[in-house]
Design brief:
The structure is a single chain. The chain has 2 domains: 66 residues, no CATH class; 184 residues, no CATH class. Helix 1 packs antiparallel against helix 2 and helix 5 runs parallel beside helix 9. The longest helix has 38 residues. It is built from 10 helices and no strands. It has 256 residues and is mainly α.
Length: 256
């Protein structure tokens, strides 16, 4: 009867593995001591085990107390870490897309990356600003394209570096301040599901917008949009398997 109770408690616990092991060891030790005390009082082992388990409380009720014992401050700290992790991944993805776009522009022409759509024009004052930035440009359009291209490249560098810093900081903080976390935790599951849903939505939208605009504009200025869609698709594939696994686990638990 004690073994069955411990199996039920282990199944119901939703805490970090290290903490779960400690809870199970302490619970089993308490129950065994309670059984020995009742046997010494004249009960049979079966009666003693039944009374010890009934007195201790149902496994689901005991697990609920431990599962809900994480402090609000610790919960928000972990939520912040998961948000930072997802944000760092988004920054790195944006940076990679921008770097790919810049490379494509250097190889095949900056207009594919930073060119304006048909019908866009600038005032003489704005053209003068662009010519100050790119004095060797032959036309205002070329000067504007050169300016926009350098902005895209610079922003890509910033996003990539910032994203790597955020990811490195996340790993260092998590390694130092967060113990092992149960794979069934709500925050971990939401991280995988949010990443899967977010990148799964962004990827086709960017690819569609870039494709439609590119067909109607000789692909001028659409490389960043398409590159962003492709990188988002890769990120979606990385989140897909864990996301589906966690979604199935949640569905199974609610069904049970």
């Amino acid at each position: 009867m004690i073994d069955e109770y411990m199996d039920q408690l282990a199944e119901a616990l939703n805490v970090a593995p290290r903490r779960a092991r400690r809870i199970l060891l302490e619970t089993e030790d308490h129950l065994q001591q309670s059984v020995e005390t009742r046997i010494a009082a004249g009960l049979s082992r079966e009666q003693a085990e039944r009374q010890a388990v009934e007195h201790f409380g149902s496994a689901r009720m005991v697990a609920a107390r431990f599962n809900g014992s994480v402090s609000q401050r610790a919960w928000f700290f972990r939520a912040y870490l998961y948000a930072a992790l997802l944000g760092g991944i988004v920054l790195v993805a944006a940076g990679i897309a921008g770097e790919i776009s810049a490379g494509f522009g250097l190889a095949f022409g900056k207009a594919y990356v930073a060119g304006d759509s048909n019908g866009v024009s600038y005032t003489p004052a704005r053209c003068a600003d662009y010519f100050e930035y790119a004095p060797s440009a032959a036309t205002c359009e070329q000067a504007a394209t050169s300016h926009h291209f350098d902005e895209i490249w610079r922003n890509a560098d910033v996003a990539l570096v910032l994203g790597l810093i955020v990811l490195a900081a996340h790993l260092l903080i998590r390694r130092r301040y967060v113990t092992d976390e149960d794979d069934r935790s709500f925050l971990r599951r939401m991280f995988w599901l949010t990443g899967m849903a977010g990148f799964g939505f962004v990827a086709p939208v960017l690819l569609f917008l870039g494709g439609v605009a590119g067909i109607g504009n000789d692909w001028t200025g659409q490389v960043p949009t398409i590159a962003g869609g492709l990188i988002a698709a890769v990120a979606f594939l990385l989140f897909l398997a864990p996301g589906v696994r966690n979604l199935r686990a949640i569905t199974h638990e609610y069904a049970a």
